[in-house]
Amino acid sequence: MTWDATDKMDTTEQLRDYIPLFYTNPNLEKTCNDELSAYILLELNSPSDLYEKYTRLPGLEYWVHCGRMMFPLLAPIAIKVLSVPTSSAAAERVWSVYSFLWSKRRTRMNAVTMEKLAFNYINSSLLDSVDTYDYFGEELDDIDLFDDTSDLDSIPDQLDVQDADSEDDDL
Q1: Cβ contacts of residue 129 below 8 Å, gap of 6+?
Q2: Among 1, 42, 146, 161, which is least packed by CB within 10 angstroms?
Q3: % helix, strand, coil for the chain, step of 5
Q4: Among residues 76, 6, 64, 2, which one has the least CA distance to residue 36?
């Protein structure tokens, strides 16, 4: 996709409209507008090798590493704009988690509990690398439920099917 001059002018005007929303102090607003003008001039007047170096960087990376030093007031706006996800996939994923957790049996759950459940569900995969103990591993297979055979005597015998039938006949 190539941008023409009108696209850049529209974007510049939109940024200039956004600056007062970001900076309420008139002096900071003016300085940020000056930084925007300086950035545009830098793009137009940079030597080709410097221009190539900066245009190879992704936009967010440029503003985090280089732009913050050169344009300290414009950089937070650029970082905020460039860090917005370009798709709704993340939001759809969250709604999918909520619909999974919020079932017919959980309709009376309060919002705080639902938020905690969703947080745990979404972030549980982060613990996989931290907590590597296998709680359902082979160690459970080796556990003898009855260490002493005398415990087997304390288990009540099951009723014989014939005994149960004879009791029903007495009723």
Answers
A1: none
A2: 1
A3: 70, 0, 30
A4: 76
- Asked if 11 and 65 sit in the same domain, the reply is yes
Q: How many domains does the chain have?
A: 2
In 10 A of CB 35, how many CB atoms? Answer: 19
Q: How high is the mean pLDDT of the chain?
A: 75
Note whether residue 170 is domain-resident: no
| pLDDT, tens digit (0-9, with 9 covering 90-100), for 126-151 | 777 777 776 666 665 665 655 555 55
> Residue 22's pLDDT is what?
87
Q: Does 78 lie in the same domain as 11?
A: yes
C-alpha–C-alpha distance, residues 100 and 56, integer Å: 42
Position 53 scores a pLDDT of: 73
User: What's the domain range around 117?
Assistant: 87-131
Give residue 50's pLDDT. 72
